[in-house]
Amino acid sequence: MGEWKATVTMRIRPGLRDELVKYAVREQRSLGNIGAVLLEWAFEQLKVAGSTERLRKYKIRAPETISRQREIPK
Q1: I need a labelling partner for 35 at 20 to 30 A (CA). Which of 12, 28, 58, 73 fits?
Q2: CA 65-70-74 angle, 5° bins
Q3: Is 46 within a domain?
Q4: What is the pTM of this model?
Q5: What range does the domain containing 35 cover?
Q6: Can you tell me the distance from the alpha carbon of 27 to that of 22, in angstroms, rounded to the nearest whole number?
Q7: Is residue 7 part of a domain?
Q8: No. of helices (H) and no. of strands (E), the chain
Q9: pLDDT tens column, 10-36
């Protein structure tokens, strides 16, 4: 049998919702599914960080920065 799921409702900025929809379409997922994946991942990160304040201090490098660092100099 499948896992039981609960409904979660939250208010977000319309612009954020639009961006989430774009990512969901690109990933061929529903908005609810991408939201659930993000929420589970974010909660795991929060548990490791210990608080929202510590979590917000972590920085994720932009994709351009990461790809530039991997380039082999000529």
Answers
A1: 58
A2: 115
A3: yes
A4: 0.69
A5: 14-70
A6: 9
A7: no
A8: 4, 0
A9: 999 999 999 999 999 999 999 999 999
